[in-house]
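Standup notes
- DV: blocked on the single-chain target, sequence here:
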Amino acid sequence: MRFRPCIDIHNGKVKQIVGGSLKDAGDSADENFASEYDSTFYAELYKKDGLRGGHIILLNPPSSEYYQATREQAMKALETWPGGMQIGGGITADNAGEYLEAGASHVIVTSYVFQNGEIRWENLHKLKETVGKEHLVLDLSCRKKDGGYYIVTNRWQTFTDVKLEVSTLEILAEYCDEFLVHGVDAEGKSAGVEENLVEILTEAVREHPGISVTYAGGIGSLEDLERFRNISDGCLDITIGSALDLFGGTIPYEEIKHCM
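- DV (later): unblocked, structure below
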């Protein structure tokens, strides 16, 4: 288990928001934290501590009046630590190369692959050909529905028909290097992890050791982190946002930055 850090950017500022509250209309979101520091502060910190594989997420769409400010913050973070972090938010086969050239180790993709409720296989193939499997992370963030977990897109507002199961990860692993999975119903609430979801992800990694998964959502204390470690048997990586003291929470960054 490795700790993967994050830099979430909304309206040109580093923030932590409540999962599922983000709306393109009015560029609104329920905020847990808005930082006084810019993205380079966090990128420099993660670089100093050697925390590779964290993610930068642009939370504004290209249509937003804040998009350029958000993008500028993201590009500054990549410039600060070239090769150290991944980036997601509006990534397509057409613009992915630009972010890799700017210093991203991987691009993180959701909506370009999952459209109209289903997997757009032609786009997935195009991404694999354009950036290479080794530079692609698929975001399989999901919400619970009808007793299962379904991948959600469009700022986590729209359910797809794609159920997150072991077989789903097995098939998609042929196209990407890693998976990023937010338990959206728990995201930003520090109310404990989505245990059933963690069990599914752990089963997938156990059955297919080549699969790499980073989980996010719900960890609000060191006790939650230990519970996660026990459920996942250390098979999954973890990212923590609003519960971290860097973002106004109580979990000490210094204590968990090298948790294994």
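- Follow-up: Helices lie at 39-48, 67-80, 96-101, 121-131, 166-172, 195-207, 222-232, 253-256.
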